[in-house]
Amino acid sequence: PHTDIEGQVFVFPKESADAQVILNMNHNGPLQNFTVCLRYFTDLTRPYSLFSYATWATDNEILLFKDKPGVLSLTVGGEEVVFSFPENTGSRGSWEHICASWESATGIAELWVNGNPLPRKGLQKGYSVSNQGVIVLGQ
């Protein structure tokens, strides 16, 4: 059976370096492509992780990271691409919606912020992500 966490909210009520939610993934082979969409709301001013896929070999095999206002990075298999976008100054105190996707066959990485696509980047063409991992939210 297929289950997802659409509509669910995880609350981290205070800043910490170890508060986290770990989700087991059920996948029958290496990942050749993925799309991750999430909404977040925070008043953190330091850099922080939005989504991580950790394997035994690599803590952040896939990492979606908020480096600073207007800058997000996507890492796949140790290679990183950085996306810059005009931060919505009125968005402080409102939800932000992010979607990131990657396709092994072309190496194309895409990012959307609040429904707006950013210029595509190239990342890890031909790479396979291990299916032996867990999703880590928070931390």
* CATH 2nd-level architecture: Sandwich
Main structural class: mainly beta
User: Helix and strand string, N-terminal first?
Assistant: EEEEEEEEEEE
Rough outline: globular
What's the gyration radius in Å? Answer: 15 Å
Largest β sheet strand count, sense and barrel closure: 6 strands, antiparallel
Strand arrangement across the biggest beta sheet? 1-11-3-4-5-6
How much helical structure, as a percent, in the residues? under 10%
Question: What is the beta-strand fraction?
Answer: over 45%
CATH class identity: Mainly Beta
The domain tally reads 1
N-to-C terminal Cα separation, in Å?
29 Å
Cofactor: Ca(2+)
Pfam families: Pentaxin
GO molecular function: complement component C1q complex binding; metal ion binding
Family: Belongs to the pentraxin family.
In terms of topology, how is this protein built?
Blueprint: E1 20-24, E2 33-40, E3 48-55, E4 62-68, E5 71-76, E6 79-84, E7 96-103, E8 108-113, E9 116-117, E10 121-122, E11 133-138
Antiparallel strand pairs: 1-11, 2-7, 3-4, 3-11, 4-5, 5-6, 7-8, 8-9, 8-10
Name the descriptors.
139 residues, Jelly Rolls, 6-stranded antiparallel beta sheet, 5-stranded antiparallel beta sheet, globular, calcium
